[in-house]
Amino acid sequence: MPAKKPKLLIAAAIIAAGSAAVYLYFHGLSQQVSNPQDSAKVVPDEAMMAAFISPNPQALSQLQQFGTPGAQKLIGGGLKAFQEQSLAGTQIDFEKDLKPWLGGVMVALLPPDATAKTEPPKLLVVVSVKNKISAWNFANKLKSQEGAKTQETEYKGVKIYEIAEPTGKRYSVALLNDQLVMAPLRKPVELAIDTFKGSPSLATQKSTSKYFAESAGVPNPIATVYIADYPAAIQQLKANLPDNFQLPSTVLSQFKQVKSLVAGIGADSSGLRVKTIARLDPKFGQQKPLVGSKLLPRFPGETIALVGGKGLDRIWLQATAEAKDSPEVDRGIQQVRSSFKRLDLDADREVFGWMNGEFAIGAIGSEQGILSQLGMGAAMIFETSDRPAAEATLKKLDAIAKSNPTVSVAPRQVQGKQVTEWQIPQQGTLFGHGWLNENSVFVAFGGPLVDVITTAPPQPLSSSRSFQAIATAVPQANQGYFYIDMDKTMSWANRYLLAVQPNLVSPPVTELLNSLRGVSVATTSTEPTTAQLDLLFAFKSSN
User: Fold this and answer.
1) Closest by alpha carbon to 364, among 350, 346, 376?
2) What's the pLDDT at 19?
3) pLDDT tens, 197-227?
4) For 456-501, what is each residue's pLDDT tens digit?
5) pTM of the model
6) Which of 124, 264, 435, 536 is least surrounded by CB atoms within 10 angstroms?
7) Cβ pair 31, 55 in contact under 8 A
8) Are 78 and 22 in contact (CB under 8 A)?
């Protein structure tokens, strides 16, 4: 006979390890919403990290309004299969045995003993109990399973049930008011009881209790993740990885900047939101001004995707500094430098050195002129306080183009502005650049976009319905942003990319992408030692 699985821990793991979606798939959940702070009250304050998943009925209601019928069917079927597979080999029925009493679930990792630093963290699972009678019935069912042995002991007046399965696997369980705590080892359960009796808890940590209790501020939270000591958590992860798997040094160096982190996932009328708030080491933190984009109105409604921010020169300097400790970053830096060196340009001084203002880079749909075969082009705008340096770089590029006998470089007036274009006979303008004002230079790939960027668009992207629905739902005063219109992207892909390579994207992925209106991301920093990231997946209505 196949070995049975550890029933109770399997039941918790179904929810805790990626099953927020499974939970929300089922209808008729209790209207009582669990709070991560309640579960955190029985988790010791030494916890390295904690993840909380809640069956939030408001979030479920919102999610049911999103996505195409095909996408909903695909997700529903996949989640149902996952739930059935996870419970295979057990005698547990989700609807009868689990759903009536399970509330929110928290999974916490406690540090190993001081004498065993190389050991993996200790697991502690906390389940909010919304119906004690149903939970008691479930516990009795576990204890009565064939071949299982249960030992009942007490610790500080609290009963602990240690269950041993025929396979030899053991786990300990205790009920602390409305919180059921469980762990493969007895020690984490004892620590939870100590915390319940008054020892410092995760909920009492002032630095994060507000963000943690509010799930980082997302509406209708589904899941919350808290990492108390980021560097220690990453080092533990690194120490317990298989020998043939190593974290990139890029990851390790970046995480040195972060002290702790809270992330929340929730759903509202705009879509599915993810918000992350990181507390930075003071020596890395620096508050930057939050302002709205001045360049955004330059991009037309046909813009497919857009990325922007401030200070490419500073970003480049940070990357080059990081390259000293990261071979991966260093290889990327050297590749960029080598590419520009072939154009007789110094990347540090002649390219990124003068890009010290706002920048915006966009992919714009167009079927005119030289872009008719590709269906889109690109335009970039850079603000600079060093116009002579930018002009010197562009003159170098023009000189290289002139050395090619098949390319002609000539000036042209567009809306009173002088632009320089690279033209190919019988094909049209390949590239153009010019100044929009005293400190804003643009470069455009594709002749039609030269006219688009130099002329104020009659219907700018910022006023389009799709942009309003997708991008304005994240902070507009920010330090950096990303936006993609998935409708325009899929329309372009179906015509130009998938028509040539129809098997490039699988049908299930295509179905999911077609259910999205778009994605937007914004980064902000309201305090010198706080960094925030907002991510929105805007879904189409299912109606």
Assistant:
1) 376
2) 36
3) 999 998 887 665 667 777 778 888 888 888 8
4) 888 999 888 888 888 776 777 778 889 999 999 999 999 998 888 8
5) 0.81
6) 435
7) no
8) no
Q: What is the distance between the alpha carbons of residues 48 and 131, in angstroms, rounded to a whole number?
A: 30
Q: Give the contacts of 29 (CB within 8 A, at least 6 positions apart).
A: 23, 55, 57, 60, 99
Instruction: Please tell me the distance from the alpha carbon of residue 152 to that of residue 61, in angstroms, as a whole number.
Output: 42
| pLDDT tens per residue across span 233-254 | 777 666 666 666 666 665 666 6
Q: Given its phi and psi angles, is residue 375 left (phi above 0), alpha (psi -120 to 50 degrees) or beta? A: left
For residue 284, give both structure tokens: 């890395």
Alpha carbons 486 and 470: distance in angstroms, whole number: 10
Q: With H, G, I as helix, E, B as strand and everything else as coil, classify residue 423.
A: strand
Q: Kindly tell me the burial class for residue 145, based on how many C-beta atoms sit within 10 Å of its own C-beta (0-12, 13-18, 19 or more).
A: middle
pLDDT of amino acid 254:
61
pLDDT digits (tens, 9 = 90+) for 222-238: 888 888 877 777 776 66
Match 């497919």 to its residue by tokens. Answer: 304
Write the CB contacts of 286 (distance below 8 Å, at least 6 apart in sequence): 528
Positive or negative, the CA dihedral 491, 496, 497, 499 is: positive
- The H or E element spanning position 212 is helix 206-213
What is the separation, in whole angstroms, between the first and last Cα of the chain?
48
Q: Retrieve residue 129's tokens.
A: 């109990």
The pairing of strands 530-539 and 258-268 is unpaired
Centre a 10 Å sphere on the Cβ of residue 131 and count the other Cβ atoms it contains: 17
CA angle 245, 249, 254 (to 5 degrees): 125
Radius of gyration in angstroms for the set of CA atoms belonging to the chain, rounded to a whole number = 28
Closest CA to 104 of 135, 140, 130, 142: 130
